[in-house]
Specification:
The protein has 479 residues and is an alpha/beta fold. The protein has two domains: 208 residues, Maf protein, CATH 3.90.950.20; 224 residues, Rossmann fold (3-Layer(aba) Sandwich), CATH 3.40.50. The chain has 17 helices and 18 strands. The strands form four sheets. An eight-stranded mixed β-sheet has the order 8-7-13-10-9-14-15-18, with helices on both faces. A six-stranded mixed β-sheet has the order 2-1-3-4-5-6, with helices on both faces. A two-stranded antiparallel sheet has the order 11-12. Helix 9 links the parallel strand 9 and strand 10. The longest helix has 21 residues. The chain is elongated and about 85 Å long.
Amino acid sequence: MSALTRGDDEFENIISVENKCTRLNLNENIYGTFAEIGAGQETVRHFFRAPNPKGTIVKTLSAYDKDFSDAIYGLDPQHRYVTESRLKSMLSYESKLIQQRISRVKHPDKLFFSYANTVATIDWAKKYKGHGWLGIRFQKIPKQEYSEIILHVQFHENNAAHQQVSLGTMGANLIYAAFYQSDDPKNLLNHLYDHLTKDKIEIDSINFTGPVFEKVDNRLMSLQLVKNGITEAVMFAPDGNNVLPANLLYKKNILTLRGSFRPVTNLNMNMYESSLKLFLQEKGVEREKTVVIFEMTLSNLKSEGEIDEKDFLDRADLLCSLGQSVMISNFQEYYKVVEYFAIHTKEKLGLVMGVDNLVDIFNEKYYRQLSGGILEAFGKLFFKSLKVYLYPIKDEETGEIITSTNLKVHPRIKELYKFFLDNHRVVDITDYDKKTLDIHPRKVYEMILEDDHEWEKLVPEKTTKMIKDKQLFRKEKIL
């Protein structure tokens, strides 16, 4: 019988927080430390209240004073305390300590873990809702290399005491899930919300590492967060690891390009390169303070009504190989993207789009759910310093190049469109590659499926090689 199942049968179908903690406490092999900073000791409190806490709790600590925390876990380079680096320092320190102080000779079957959180709850003025990092480093086999789950949360409740309760519940859920639900990480995500609702606490970043999760692709876990409605948007870096949007976007100028990228084409890259040149000419926009985001929405990812995970990873691999940061969002309307970015920065924003997308933006049917209709949406969309960088299209019948000056909008909103045009909120991209106007991304994808090698001329050279080498977008071999 394994170390995890000894004496556990009676708890198989009991999922209350108290019984989760009881099951862990009564397992004689699960043994670990708790380090909680910023919101009391809300997680370990559940274990103390459950029967037999001495069976699980090695030590509990709340280094609330900053100097005391620094003395234990080291100085943070930016002198910040609610950060991923602080959480990792806590987990590393505590897991090493338990290894040093608990004898493996005396306890050969122990499964060690270290749980930690560092959070800031809502401030007294209720201006900042609060956020935090929590994680666990654990073993499922004695002496095994540690596996790790690290996540970031945003608090949405307007009372610090309520936020503390939610934090404690999620912490207990996390520890239980690590030992009893980690064989299925997608299901684990859902169980983190046992006895919680998503309007109380939001997970906007999560990463799984270590031997227990060696087959887990964290980009799929990011996708799952959006797909399950846990968060509205997630991001991952060119290395494929999930990144906290707030960290990537904080005080940055943001240029974003939305698309399906199935695959990324020369058209996409020319839109990106030519718009970035214009964006960097804006006053106060410097390259080192600017991030470019390639965004895919859930609707972009759906194929025949469902999201194909392999297809998603193929697209993500191509974008990452080109050094791009990727955002997956649940934002159908562009104004929601702008609202989201505005939470994280007050600097300049730029949206890159084709003429056909701009025409869609001025379609009133998309804003019927808003009491202020299209005017309300545009008040949010064109806030402050946002500009649209417009890539032309070619009329397939006449060959005419359509730009902001000759596109046709509904007569009812003609004056509204003219207002934004006159105020230089729409900027035409004039330095474009004319050959790209004949590229239709959907047709490129179909050409790949049909083995029409002309597609190779329509995508970046590096993309062509990767599609062929890794057999992306299809199972049959591409010669």
